[in-house]
Amino acid sequence: MMPGAIKRRASRALVYTLLVGVVLWLVGPFIWLFVTSISYQRNLLARPLALIPPEITLDNYRMVLGMLRFHAEGQAAKILPSMLNSLVVAAAVTLVNLAVGTTAGYAYARFRVPLKAFSLFALLFTRMLPTVVLIPAYFLLFKALGLQNTLTGLVLAYCSFTLPFTVWIMKAYFETIPADLDKSALVDGCNRLQAYYRVVLPVSGPGLVAAGAFTFMLCWNEFIVAQILNTKLGMTTLPPVIAGMNAQINIDYSVIAASGFLAALPAVLLVLGFQRYLVQGLTAGSVKG
Amino acid sequence: MISLVVGFPLVYSLWMSFADVNLLRTTGLALEISGLRIPFFRYVGVQNYARLLADPLYWDSFWRTAYFVGAFVVETTVVGLGMALVLQERFLGRPVMRSLLLIPWSLSRVVVGLLWIGLLDVEFGALNGLLYKAGLIDSYISFLKSGFSALNVLVSVYMWNQAPFATLLLLAGMQSIPTELYMAAEADGAGYWQRLRYVTLPALRGILFLVLVVSTVNGFLMLDLIYMLTMGGPANETTTISWLGFQTAFQFFKFGPGTAILYTLTVLCLILTVVYHKVVFRKLEAEEV
Q1: Which of A50, B190, B199, B280 is spaced 20 to 30 Å from A287 by Cα?
Q2: Which of A32, A223, A246 sits opposite B126 (nearest CB)?
Q3: Would an 8 Å CB–CB cutoff place B124 in contact with chain A?
């Protein structure tokens, strides 16, 4: 009995040690970003480095939000407007996705779509496709259409690579809803469209939340497309602005960390808030991340 | 509609890879629809591809990409599986741990790059600070200075961002393994490693394959972290195919050669899609039987 008990206790200890390691690995870097964002640069440069900051300051945030003047305030002043741009673009793309992508997902799940096998393959391919390969085409098309440096252009471009995800997630979700549900609605006198939005959609909440939150997160975080298509400061989203600050040598890391933390917070909160649905929806649709 | 939004840019980009794209001279043949003018440029046949395949820089990037993808896939699978096995154990606060998994994954790659700069920088990096404090190093290390070390840093940082998603998929898979299997194995006197080898891993085969394919594609396409951390340097030593294409197209504005490079990548992804598609549909057919 004794060796068994010791062995069990040892394996418990091992599990908890490994757990601590995993937690540090997952969260440590993110917490450090926050710590640097409330530190003075001079304390980050000190050797030996103090892991608990000797002085705490909100100056970095005040600089980023335009409440404190400093040498790169021109760039920092773009943070709030570009955050708003990010929000507008991400929200618009999410709405389009939920309206169009969901309906297409339903069609795939329930009907005999012409060329179904081929179009499913095409859908899968667009999910695996390098987005950058499309950007030269968008660049010239948007130039012709006058959509360069506009939020509309960005919304259009984002829809093209988020829609396949939404269709895929929703198709997988609708397939978990028994088709008998639609059939009984049809028997009760609904037409197909009514059956869809009166009966099927109301029970699809979790799938919709998963697809919506995922789309929003992708758009909020997207960098490369926005960086190329919307080069004008003030007409672009948050990630390119932060990357631009990072490329400049005369801005303190602590200040950029503050803007980085502001960019990270909405995505993290959104994902944590909807985690249950997201995990369900994404594992069902097994999406590339 | 999706096929139009994605299909047209895709075909237009393909055309550009066979053309001499001069952005300053857009006269000549063009597609004109109601005042809209989409230039076609001069067709030059396979010239862009021929030059590309004769360029040693392309082949250097090719082999570097192969190393990058291989290392990334191995790290993601091993760490992803490792974390899943730890989190599968019974312990206090298990639901909280699953939320923490989503944090690295939900961050914009701009923020991911930014926060790893905070850990690895040669002047203020916290990891340097820790190693220095522990007396393991005499002076701060410049992790991104040598090409090979920089490439491996990129692999690991990307893995930090992506492995949690693999863990989520694997955890979902582990939960669907019937407990009876484990009880039977235990009754037969199987230890932890034997249960892992003969029960868990065989049951996860499908999901592991999915993780492999998805991380291979993601490895080929990675761009934003290179932008944030190394810009392809030092001396092109972290230049992968996707970075080379990005640089050619959008920093040197050579759309012809740039799209040609990106199209070689697209073909690779197409092949991977075919593989993935085969497996997904074989699984579907098996379920229907």
Answers
A1: B199
A2: A32
A3: yes
Complex-level ipTM:
0.89
Q: Spell B243-256 as b/e; 16+ CB within 10 A means b.
A: bbbbbbbbeeebbb
Q: Which of B114, B255, B280 sits opposite A260 (nearest CB)?
A: B114
Q: Are A286 and B210 in contact (CB under 8 A)?
A: yes
Smallest Cα distance from B152 to chain A, Å: 17
In order of B81, B97, B225, B249, the CA distances from B160 in angstroms are 13, 16, 12, 29
Domains and CATH numbers, chain B: 1-45 (no CATH), 46-288 (1.10.3720.10)
In terms of CA atoms, which chain A residue is nearest residue B169?
Answer: A283
CB contact under 8 A, A26 and B101: yes
CB-based contacts of B109, cutoff 8 Å, min separation 6:
A221, A223, B161, B224, B225, B228
Q: Which residue has the tokens 């002043």?
A: A77
Contact A214, B78 (CB under 8 A): no
- Domains in chain A (CATH in brackets) are 2-73 (no CATH), 78-285 (1.10.3720.10)
Provide block-wise average pLDDT over 10 residues at a time, chain A (289 residues).
75 88 92 93 85 87 82 77 94 94 86 74 79 88 87 91 86 84 82 81 86 94 93 89 88 91 93 86 61
pTM: 0.90
Å between A15 CA and nearest CA of chain B: 7
Q: Which residues on neighbouring strands pair with residue B36, listed in sequence order?
A: B33
Smallest CA-to-CA distance from A276 within A215, A203, A213 is with: A213
Distance CA(A185)–CA(A176), nearest Å, equals 17
Beta partners for A97? none
The C-alpha atoms of residue B10 and residue A109 are separated, in whole angstroms, by: 26
